[in-house]
């Protein structure tokens, strides 16, 4: 008989945490108890609060999603906060996991922490090969340290602490705040405001030329369940759509305009930053494990995300 798993999901109220909750509605297993927590349950920057949270729930497994997260412009203005908050949270979660005998921890890196000056596609072996893009060095170094801690915990204590590396995530329950959001929720919010006001101009920040890989949060959530249940390497694994699915910000805006049935003008504000031009990630390792995994087609995922926001904007994280 398999042992009952108690799985604590930190950051359980966020974009990815909500998507895991949704996917579990169909994919829950009888030997798993899932607990989703957010900053109201415990501030994970605080060691004592972290200890109390773990004492209360006694998890055997942890999916560590909690983080200070934000888009390009939020990162550019808050590198110190991204560095300190994320270093503290990650260190507290891993240290308390070890102290309380947690069997497996899956933490979250990001493709935006990869080296700035690099060859593409980028793979899991290249995470530490040079400085990150200067726009988000705080977030990047804090996230890179998770991988270092995972290796050190494994080497010294034999722990199974691993990490996943998603590309840019989008979907229902995203952060739509214009100051701090990533590009897709930011543009959904802006286009929603424009169409509601009967406006004719949709303004996008930057040149529209940068390239990005975007993963639908519900696809990522399915992959998280697989990692928790099946993936037992310490080394990180990139969870991204294929390289061929990379799109420019301009293509993204056209897809969003379609989803909103917006027929006005799309204007690029080239006085605003572009960030890293591209950071194409290879999902070859993922494909080796799961050759047949099917990602939701981008236009379908964009349409579902737009429809969710239009139906829920009054209660969304604006
Ligand atoms: P999100 O929607 O911003 O949610 C962040 C979560 O972290 C929320 O549940 C929040 O709780 C919690 N949190 C923040 N500060 C906390 C603190 N001090 N103590 C306890 N909990 C705290 O983030 P997400 O987009 O789902 O991201 C999940 C993970 O994926 C993160 O590790 C992120 O770095 C990674 N990731 C995200 C993307 C992306 O494009 N979004 C891409 C690659 C990797 P409250 O709701 O209470 O504030
Ligand atoms: P990144 O993928 O880590 O760089 O983060 P973002 O999700 O913030 O995407 C940034 C890219 O989208 C840059 O090329 C920006 O110039 C572009 N962009 C266009 N409009 C917006 C917007 O309203 N918000 C954000 N965050 N980025 C935008």
Automatic annotation (TrEMBL):
Q: Where is the NAD-dependent epimerase/dehydratase domain?
A: 7-235
UniProt keywords, alphabetically:
Isomerase, NADP, Oxidoreductase
> What is the name of the protein in this document?
GDP-L-fucose synthase
GO biological process assignments = 'de novo' GDP-L-fucose biosynthetic process
Q: Pathway listed for it?
A: Nucleotide-sugar biosynthesis; GDP-L-fucose biosynthesis via de novo pathway; GDP-L-fucose from GDP-alpha-D-mannose: step 2/2
UniProt-listed PANTHER family: GDP-L-FUCOSE SYNTHASE (PTHR43238)
Q: Which CDD domains match?
A: GDP_FS_SDR_e
Q: What is the lineage of its organism?
A: Eukaryota, Metazoa, Ecdysozoa, Arthropoda, Hexapoda
Taxonomy, superkingdom? Eukaryota
Q: Which family does it belong to?
A: Belongs to the NAD(P)-dependent epimerase/dehydratase family. Fucose synthase subfamily.
Instruction: Tell me, in a sentence or two, what this protein's role is.
Output: Catalyzes the two-step NADP-dependent conversion of GDP-4-dehydro-6-deoxy-D-mannose to GDP-fucose, involving an epimerase and a reductase reaction.
Native source organism of the sequence? Tribolium castaneum (Red flour beetle)
Q: What is its EC number?
A: 1.1.1.271
Q: Does the keyword rRNA-binding apply?
A: no
